Design the sequence.
């Protein structure tokens, strides 16, 4: 029996798009129709929290796709594919070199496989070790119908936030004035500006991320306007007031910037806040947010971080009082 996501037929197309963007669909099996629902086969290594699903996972024996029988089986071990680059997580049970060879054998578009030795420093760049392949860190990545130039060695990028970016872009209203406080190569800003005619001020202190963000704004046909600003977000944000939304994706240290985000918002304005927390830490944060003058609209786990820690997405709004 294997995991399938049960989704109402009319929502299946849009859900499939999100799942495919996250490499979550098990393409060796067919999608099954059952009454008003479809059952989408899901890859074993995908967790519910990664998918951010509002739908039920059900067990089903599965309907193998005959055209794929005989091909090499999927293997265990977590890795991300970003364009023509695969990044293996440190700490997988299998030997990274064995995983890397299997990836090169099975994923024809992958040209380089790196080992991820952690994200470091103010710029949150990945410490990468080339295991096999060409070793180019720059590539083109497709997500939510958009193209992004990324440089996995010189500016932060994670494909695991694809669904989150889609959710935030969907929830933004036409005409919003937004600050993307830690914008990196611009995936939140570009995804929102693609869907909504917003004005977005995108900050980052990493010059390499800023250059890539400018390329990404230029290479996608977007409706909204993005203004890239290089520098320290905690200083730049002081010039803004009455903003509709602030996006705070710096999960290790977001909290130290929260009061400045509060000051930049209009009453009723939103914060999309990300932080790595355990459940006790989450309770504590909620209390602190209330003291500052925020109320919580929503929270969800974006993905697991370690045994007890998760990356949380918390939607706050500035109290109307
Ligand atoms: C976790 S990454 C998020 C990037 C982007 N939002 C995304 O989803 O890919 C955080 C980014 O914040 C930037 N950063 C860290 N401290 C900063 C600061 N004080 N001011 C501006 N940017 C900062 C880093 O350079 C990095 O690109």
Sequence:
């Amino acid at each position: 029996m294997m995991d399938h996501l049960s989704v109402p037929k009319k929502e299946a197309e849009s859900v499939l798009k999100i799942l495919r963007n996250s490499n979550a669909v098990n393409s060796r099996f067919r999608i099954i129709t059952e009454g008003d629902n479809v059952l989408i086969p899901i890859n074993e290594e995908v967790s519910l929290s990664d998918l951010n699903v509002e739908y039920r996972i059900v067990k089903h024996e599965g309907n193998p796709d005959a055209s794929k029988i005989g091909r090499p089986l999927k293997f265990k071990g977590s890795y991300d594919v970003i364009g023509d680059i695969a990044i293996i997580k440190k700490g997988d049970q299998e030997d990274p070199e064995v995983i890397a060879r299997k990836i090169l054998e099975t994923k024809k578009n992958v040209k380089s496989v790196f080992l991820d030795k952690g994200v470091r420093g103010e710029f949150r760049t990945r410490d990468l070790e080339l295991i096999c392949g060409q070793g180019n860190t720059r590539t083109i990545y497709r997500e939510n119908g958009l193209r992004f130039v990324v440089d996995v060695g010189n500016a932060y990028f994670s494909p695991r936030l694809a669904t989150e970016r889609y959710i935030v872009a969907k929830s933004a209203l036409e005409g919003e004035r937004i600050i993307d406080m830690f914008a990196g190569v611009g995936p939140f800003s570009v995804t929102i500006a693609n869907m909504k005619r917003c004005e977005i001020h995108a900050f980052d202190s990493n010059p390499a991320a800023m250059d890539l963000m400018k390329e990404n704004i230029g290479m996608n046909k977007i409706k909204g306007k993005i203004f890239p600003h290089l520098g320290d977000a905690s200083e730049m944000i002081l010039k803004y007031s009455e903003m509709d939304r602030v996006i705070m994706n710096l999960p290790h240290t977001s909290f130290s910037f929260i009061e400045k985000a509060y000051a930049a918002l209009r009453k009723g304005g939103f914060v999309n806040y990300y932080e790595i927390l355990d459940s006790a830490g989450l309770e504590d944060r909620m209390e602190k947010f209330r003291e500052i003058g925020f109320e919580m609209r929503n929270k969800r786990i974006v993905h697991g971080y370690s045994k007890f820690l998760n990356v949380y997405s918390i939607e706050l709004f500035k109290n109307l009082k």
Remarks:
- Residues 122-124, 155-157, 161, 182-184, 187-188, 203-206, 209, 232-234, 249-250 surround S-adenosylmethionine (CB under 6 Å).
- The chain has a mean pLDDT of 89.
- The chain has three domains: 2-68, 79-136, 158-318.
- The longest strand covers residues 265-277.
